Known about the structure:
It contains twelve helices and nine strands. By secondary structure, the chain is an alpha/beta fold.
Amino acid sequence: MPFITVDRENSGEVQLYYEDHGKGQPVVLIHGFPLSGDAWEKQKYALLEGGYRTITYDRRGFGRSDKPAVGYDYDTFTADLNQIMTKLNLKDVVLVGHSMGTGEVTRYLAKHGSDRVARAIFISPLTPYLVKAEDNPDGVDKEVFDAFQTEILDDRFVYLRDFFKDFYNSDETLGNRLSKEVMWSSWNTGSIASPKGTHDCVTAWQTDFREDVTKIDVPSLIIQGDADRILPIDITGRLLNEALEGSRLVVLQDAPHGIPWTHAAEINREIMAFLAQGRREESPEAEKRRSQAPELAFREQIEVEEEDEDL
Length: 311
């Protein structure tokens, strides 16, 4: 599978592993912490069957991408995403982020605009701002994040074990929506990530995206479980819905943070409906732009309570 060079560190290049499958309107899927593009397994199949070009990549430091000691901040993560977008010459894109990946979606649209982007989907979002402050009284105390980083330094593997229990709400989902094997697979993926990146990403989680959100100007869908223990909906998804004009919030009852796996059918249904809506509303200019987009020479072939908010 191909790699894209996005940076250099000392004597070596920093390369990101990516997969690019299918034809049609491109959908770029950006994974959550501390996983890889493989976390989108159940969404990739649905998108390919639905006639979409489906692109995943592993964030720097994670999965099969290179693991530098630097660059674990959202300006750099967004620059990496921009390299993917420009080097693959992607247009009329639907950006889909889960958890930490929603930060890249938000910062990309704020910094680079929507010339290449048609729609955005935020699943279990990190945004708009997690940290408790005078103007964000319901946020999380900074000491909580400091404790996470201490746990990672003390024993990263134990931290990951406990993290995934809350990621999937395994005390409630194991045996019905979740298997032990999925837990093992997730732990294995996290265990081979960059130790430095794992630690530094906790600092990135504390990024204030509130100004970025005001610059998003594409139709946006937010999907989150109301039992999310990693990023509770009342300080993330609901606030993002309020701040993001015209966005639509879909709340999955009793669902955890890791809903791309545990609630894949519901997630896929919402994604496909949102994308189909975009096709129906597509302008002739967008259709012409997509039809003229060059083909890549190097590419591998191969169902909910809703809350709508119109501000």
